[in-house]
Amino acid sequence: MSFRKEEKLKIPLNNIFLLKKMIIDNEGKILYPPRKINSIYFDNQNFSMYNHSIEGIVPRKKIRIRIYNQEFKSCKDVKKEIKITAVEGRYKTSENIRDFSQVMNLGILDRNYGVCIPVLNVTYKRSYYLLENIRITFDENIYYKKITNKQVSKFSTFDNYCIVELKYNSDKFINFCNTFFPFQRIRFSKYCRGIEFTELNYCNDLDSFR
To answer: Which DSSP helix (H) or strand (E) runs through 144?
Structure first.
């Protein structure tokens, strides 16, 4: 199991072009072409994953299904991802989902959180860069949609910020990151932010699963 260090920066959209240019000008490189990420997040009846994230409890986890450059209605390659935050760092597990409709209708059973049902859809464009063995991702054009009665809303909420994530496996890069990226470090969760942005009514959303 490989833990990684991760820092997040919340940056106004109008500063992103200059930051990307600065990476390239300092011998950084583009790792992959940008792609659209489409995720559905799950939580239990008490929204424990949301509350644990807000409170900063460790260990904690997030459960989601995810596809790339597709819509869920036409998807064929859906993955279930469990993102775990521990004292040592963060890591992620991933496995293929055979039946998307079944997961949406019945939820996901987790040994720590019990039955978890779909509550939020998040989409965004992700760009990938590498600088000094630090992986840098830019998440832009972030949209949140609540899920009610197992259906994704037609209405979305747009996020005016871009989230930049710095990921590295060694503490020796901490000083470099602080110098090269002199921005405020934040605790940021698209899942938590999406719940707050869309003002989910927890009780109403869970009625159909009881």
So the answer is: strand 134-148
